[in-house]
Design brief:
The protein is mainly α and about 280 residues long. The protein has twelve helices and no strands.
Length: about 280
């Protein structure tokens, strides 16, 4: 096993200290409300990764290999994502009250984030985690491409690379549990589809809600505000999201033959484009 496969601390090839926040071109983003919503919401979710880590560590509590990687590597890297995005927000939009907005988000978020939201078996939860890492890797790849500002592009590209590597770890663990538990391909497919369908997950919804309220302190928040935000994102996502990369990653846990997988990729990629536009 290589050191990267073992998941030791320091796997990430970048650090916040190396980022040139002093070179951030504020004029390119300061009036871009959509970008503020995207980056601030992402920072809230990423910087709360210690909560996700506790839940996963509890679920896999007697598997020292999984727990050690989660607590020593995955958590620290996810938290670094959140800290980098937070610093970007505070540099690009200094009038945005990050601390207060995050406290309000966390108070609401903690009411529903629990172990009982995980999949019914360990193999299926690892398959679900592959979907999550696929989504985040694709999201940050798209953000890096669509960003009008170079520092944000650099941060997003670095995070996307981390998320692809995290996917590889979760997939390795999935293979181990698939061997032990022997879930059917249908059960795996259902799990993948169910997690793909969680496009309005509570963490993303409430992160946006509290970014919106912090930016619009005199306004009331309605679900339609989130729907409007998602509608603005769809054409950007359809244009910039790496559909083929994500399709290959999503299909991998199904254990298809090389030929079947190759034939399925264009279909899944086309479906993902349509899904993002609906």
């Amino acid at each position: 096993m290589t050191e990267d496969e073992a998941g030791y601390p320091g796997d990430a090839s970048w650090s916040i200290d190396a980022l040139r926040f002093d070179a951030l071109e504020r004029e390119r983003v300061k009036d871009n409300a959509l970008l503020l919503y995207i980056v601030a919401s992402a920072s809230f979710v990423e910087i709360t990764s210690d909560v996700y880590t506790r839940n996963l560590s509890d679920f896999f509590r007697d598997d020292s290999d999984v727990v050690e990687w989660l607590e020593r590597s995955w958590e620290s890297e996810e938290l670094q994502h959140g800290r980098a995005l937070r610093r970007y927000v505070e540099t690009a939009w200094p009038d945005f009250g990050w601390d207060g907005a995050y406290r309000n988000f966390l108070a609401e978020f903690m009411r529903f984030c629990s172990v009982d939201q995980l999949a019914e078996t360990r193999a299926l939860e690892m398959a679900a985690r592959c979907v999550v890492e696929t989504g985040t890797a694709g999201f940050y790849r798209a953000l890096a491409e669509m960003s009008p500002e170079p520092v944000l592009s650099e941060i997003a590209a670095a995070i996307s690379t981390d998320e692809v590597r995290h996917y590889k770890h979760f997939y390795r663990f999935f293979l181990r549990y698939r061997e032990r538990e022997q879930p059917s391909r249908v059960a795996v497919a259902r799990t993948l589809w169910a997690r793909i369908g969680e496009v309005d997950a509570e963490d993303a919804f409430y992160a946006f809600k509290h970014v919106y309220l912090a930016r619009n302190p005199d306004a009331e928040f309605h679900a339609d505000d989130y729907a409007t935000f998602r509608a603005q994102l769809r054409p950007l996502a359809a244009r910039h999201f790496p559909h083929r990369m994500a399709s290959k990653m999503l299909l991998k846990p199904l254990g298809l033959s090389t030929l079947a997988g190759r034939l399925m990729v264009p279909t899944v990629a086309s479906a993902s484009r349509l899904l993002l536009l609906t």
